[in-house]
Design goal:
By secondary structure, this protein is mainly α. The protein has eleven helices and four strands. The strands form two sheets. The chain has a two-stranded antiparallel ribbon. A two-stranded parallel ribbon has the order 3-4. A hairpin with a 5-residue loop joins strand 1 and strand 2. The N terminus and C terminus are likely disordered. Its EC number is 2.7.8.31.
């Protein structure tokens, strides 16, 4: 059972974890993001064109998020909602959300909407692997609800993470579902290794293969 407390006294209580100190992780981020942008540039250009044809509005959707140490940065995604909805006050997307465009639904299901975050990785705001950064409105709510919630930001947020490949991807409609995701994020930070990052990356690219999902089904 998860303990719920008011986590407002500090942004993180974990000091500087191994995932932050590792030069190998940062070097891999730079090389991986750079190679990804080069190899995926035709896809990125095609998606940008399709977004402009699908609905009026900008191609990219920028949004402020918390990053390493609780400092804010601007994250980039391909726009998947109508332009008007993108300007509205934050409301978590749900299954069948009418704000999501026709193309946006495909981009979300395939996670292609996240690919512009490769630029965030190159800039040093994010890592390829780490806890996913949530919208600020969710952070400000859950930091008062879930114990150690802001400790997620003791490391750089990631494009994918242990929580996502463990079956905790997508909407978190309850406190319990968010607490389960945060538990995996904190587990990732506490047990980080470069080998684990590689396994998470493979499980992200090949979603039908994930040892963590098998572990969850087995109750371990």
């Amino acid at each position: 059972m998860t303990d719920f407390i008011d986590d407002t006294t500090s942004l993180t209580g974990l000091g500087q974890p191994a995932a932050v100190r590792s030069w190998l992780k940062r070097a891999f981020d730079i090389l991986g993001a750079g190679a990804g942008l080069v190899l995926l540039s035709p896809l990125l250009a095609l998606v940008a064109l399709l977004i402009r044809l699908d609905s009026p509005g900008p191609v990219l959707f920028p949004q402020e998020r918390y990053g390493l140490g609780g400092r804010t940065f601007r994250i980039y995604k391909f726009r998947t909602m109508t332009a008007a909805a993108s300007r509205d006050v934050f409301r978590q997307a749900t299954v069948g959300d009418v704000r999501i465009t026709r193309l946006g639904g495909i981009l979300r299901r395939t996670s292609i909407d996240e690919l512009p975050q490769l630029f965030n990785v190159l800039a040093g705001d994010m890592s390829l692997i780490g806890p996913r950064p949530h919208p600020l409105a969710l952070d400000e709510h859950y930091r008062h609800v879930i114990a150690g919630y802001m400790d997620r930001y003791a490391v750089r947020p990631g494009m994918s993470g242990l929580a996502q490949v463990s079956g905790h991807r997508g909407p978190t409609p309850t406190d319990e579902s968010m607490a389960a995701r945060v538990a995996q994020d904190l587990r990732y930070i506490a047990t980080w290794s470069f080998a684990a990052d590689l396994r998470i990356l493979v499980a992200t690219v090949l979603p039908w293969w994930s040892p963590w999902k098998s572990e969850a089904r087995g109750g371990g």
